[in-house]
Amino acid sequence: ACSSSAATNFKVFRGTFVHSTQEEALVILEDALLGVDSTGKISFVEKGPELEKVSAKFGFNPSAVTQLSPQEFFMPGLVDTHIHAAQYSFAGTALDLPLLDWLQTYTFPVESRYSDLEFARQVYTHVVKRTLRNGTTTACYFATIHTDASLLLGEIANDFGQRALVGKVCMDRNGLHEHYKEETQESLDETSRCGNTFYIININITHFSRPVVTPRFSVSCTSELMLKLAEVARNNNLHIQSHISENMDEVRLVQELFPESESYTDVYRKHNLLTSKTIMAHGCYLSDEELQIFHQTGSSLAHCPNSNLSLCSGLLDVRKVLSHKVKLGLGTDVAGGYSPSMLDAVRRTRDTSKALKIQDPVHQTLTWEETFRLATLGGSQGIPPQPKPSFRAFWS
Ligand code: GUN
Ligand code: FE
């Protein structure tokens, strides 16, 4: 009786499975059996020819196994560790300016339109469907400063079955666009409202979207806002995401805005924003000392090679990052990056590594197996799978 009731609990697949481990960048399991339990978790991986033994051990019907064709294989979902959902509306256009001019000229005017929920619904539906079609099962999204549209993005991702971290963008100063910003208290209140609403939805239904505390970058946040957002993240056990050291002009501007800080990384560290749940995008110009701080704090980096090339921002040396034992995943950074596909991010990661070798022949290029690992296991280190919310309610 025990084994017959267990028989309904597994869905079992037989075929080729491809994945990565810490030890081996690419593992190919041919003719394997993979069992998924009723909660959707993988509960075993066994050898295909041992079907009889395995089915007896786990109590499933061997004739109910789903067999893949020889042309098919399973692989882990791709993790996009950095994507601006709101910028999807102009992806593939407007890549003729460097970062700060690009933000001012194209990005902020578009993002300010997301007070319009109908516009938000259209774009957010498109970006979720498109990224899912391209294999992105988990995405770490920047939305805009608008809470209601950000909540809508979480709802849409959930409805289509994508695990999403959704960041209501926080910015209480904007020298580049006077109207696209918030007051400090407003930014904090809206971040709490966003988190609270996610929490209430999450306790009522199975919901895969979670909030992520999102100070846009040091250029658009005051010290007070950054300190208080760090507190919100700590009190509620939330992820944090932002941008760091993407472009030389940006790095210089941050030095001017925070003259008392030793480096861009030091700015975030002083504001308590570097935690083991922090994902910082880019990091092209981080020094060894700064990477050391990333390692010590357990913060991770999102490498966004398409964006770095498209906006002529820089070339991140992934080998150097990994040699400091800093967690690193890949991101599309739509729309600084023109492609919403993580397989494109894999290719651009290799292209960037090869460009570094052109500059310096001793540079060891990343293998394609390693880039595959970054797009899957690499991203999951910054954003561990977590089907149920672990954060608790705000009491604001
Ligand atoms: N730095 C601050 N905001 C942004 C953004 O929207 N895109 C990119 N690529 N960098 C940023
Ligand atoms: Fe970005």
Automatic annotation (TrEMBL):
GO terms for cellular component: cytosol. Belongs to the metallo-dependent hydrolases superfamily. ATZ/TRZ family. PANTHER family: GUANINE DEAMINASE. GO terms for molecular function: guanine deaminase activity; zinc ion binding. Pathway: Purine metabolism; guanine degradation; xanthine from guanine: step 1/1. Its cofactor is Zn(2+). It is an enzyme of class 3 (hydrolase). Keywords: Hydrolase, Metal-binding, Zinc. Its EC number is 3.5.4.3. This is Guanine deaminase.
